[in-house]
Amino acid sequence: MATEKRVMSLFEDETRAASAIEALRKFPWKLEEVHSPIPSDKISQALKRKKSRVGYFTLAGGIIGFLSGVGLAIYTGIQWNLVVSGKPVVALIPFLIVGFEFTILFAVFGNVLGLLVQTNLPEFQSLHLYDQRCSGEHFGILASCTPGQENDLMAFFREQGGEARLI
Amino acid sequence: MSRMTYAQIEQTVLNTLSPAPLKYWAVVALALLGLLIGALCWAYQIGVGIGVGGQNIPVAWGTYLINFVFWVGIAHSGTLISAILYLFRAGWRNPIARAAETMTVFAVCIAGLFPFIHLGRVWMVYYMLPYPNERTLWPNFQSPLVFDMVAISTYLTVSSLFWYTGMLPDLAIVRDRATGLRKSIFRVISLGWTGRYEQWRHYTRAYLFFAALATPLVISVHSVVSWDFALGIIPGWHSTLFAPYFVAGAIHSGLAMVLTLMIPLRRIFQYKAIITEDILDNIAKTIIFTGLIVGYAYMVEYFLAWYSHNIVEQESFRWRAFGHYSLEFWIMVICNSVVPLLFFIRKVRRSIPWLFGVSILINIGMWYERFVIIVGGVAHDFMPHAWGEYSPSFIEYGILLGSFSMFFFLFLLFVKHLPSISMTELKEGVRQGGGHGH
């Protein structure tokens, strides 16, 4: 809703930030975002989100890579149909080496693609909803509420041990 | 380091990005000069022909291949420290991982140049690429040289992506503390990273997969490099020992180069509180381990030659120790497997001059190891009438100088323009002793 009010709260301690996230659930306010300078297990537990699905992208990339690597080696072997050093034109053991390298390469491409897709990067629009101290030593919680409740929301965060400001 | 606060960590690292003094630019100019000398030598070789090098029949692979294997080896330790130690949850890697990864990226770039240099007619390099053409001519994927091209290009791509991905949160820190043009540049290269929980959730998982994929890759790459030799039938090359021997040697030289780079870095940039003596001590202990493996490999090569009853193999190894290149052989043995034993003495491991001195000797020894293998094998193979000798030409020395200069030139630019230590991982280390997401 365009009329929603957003409040950014900053905590110096991740435990307090995590408990503020849990306490926020008891109120009708909406938790929009949590920013932190490091990946935090405590915040992760408080948010109760599932494991990342980046691995599916990585796995898909790896499978595509293996098939591409071995496929390319077989295809080129058949195209240049010449027996070299008495070895078969389609020699699977050497081609597995090519397949292995392609597996790693494409798995990494999948991994990076998965990361970009899942995190929605690059993305510059939400920088204005972010406090630069969150890359330093603060844990930031962005929450929204209906107009008129912003003072209550700010008071809640202050009570939890954070500082709060309206965005 | 554990007593540092987040703010102190940031301050220490960000201070290194402040405007550089004149002395820094003087050193950069010196490295650039060396790089230009190397580039001029290469340009001369392109103009005149590959004959300006000292390569001959039978020694067709001279310093260009020696440098190639040397730089690929240097590149290995970056991934060892970054990926393998990450998987083993070794917290001491955090302060040195970024610089080691950077070393990897630059070293692979330089290594990748040498096949081009060795090619002579560098404009024909596209023959290596598998593309449809009117002659229906394709690269032979059974050849270890083609394995090598695939492995090295994969390693360069993966190392670069690993390096950049690992740096994203730090680039955002620089963006948030910078002003003006630097802020605009870092805003773009940090891709808008804000440390949202959703970003960390996927990032930590992706980083783990990166490390898990880079670990087998690093082992495969130097195994593939070793097969450039081991799949040939030349005495001294044709051995199943080569893959583990090369991997251990690569890590050995890479760790030595990490010491060579870290010791001046911690002094110049006031990193003593972050890159502590304990960390250098741990690197030295790892060097003992890799040095023992390398020494063991040297001995096993002799055992295999003796045990095989193959007179050509036996003569090749006798000549290696007492023949024309015996000086290079003994430099190799002493620098790589005897000198590192000094690290058994705690005082040596805790002494910065000793650490630096030993690291330089290992670098020299590992370059000579490649010399002994690459030149020594073909110079004295099956047929006495085909035996020959080789010594590098002035042009080859110029290109060697250019490669080292290029490495230090790039590294010097890096340490002054990008965060040379991972602030985020150090912050995590302060809290719990691990890397991303541990």
What does this protein look like?
The complex is a heterodimer of chains A (167) and B (438). Chain A has 5 helices and 4 strands; from the N terminus they run E-H-E-H-H-H-E-H-E. Chain A folds into 2 domains: 5-49 and 127-166, Alpha-Beta Plaits, CATH 3.30.70; 54-119, no CATH class. By secondary structure, chain A is α+β, with helices and mostly antiparallel strands. Chain A has helices at residues 14-24, 41-47, 54-79, 92-119, 150-159; strands spanning 5-11, 30-35, 139-145, 163-166. Chain A starts with a strand and ends with a strand. Chain B is mostly helical. Chain B has one domain: Formate dehydrogenase/DMSO reductase fold (Up-down Bundle). In chain B, helix 5 runs antiparallel to helix 7. The longest helix of chain B has 34 residues, at 144-177. Chain B starts with 5 loop residues before the first helix and ends in a 6-residue tail after the last helix. The chains are: A alpha+beta (167), B mainly alpha (438). The interface between A and B is large, with 58 and 59 residues.
Condensed summary:
The complex is a heterodimer of chains A (167) and B (438). Chain A is an alpha+beta fold and 167 residues long.
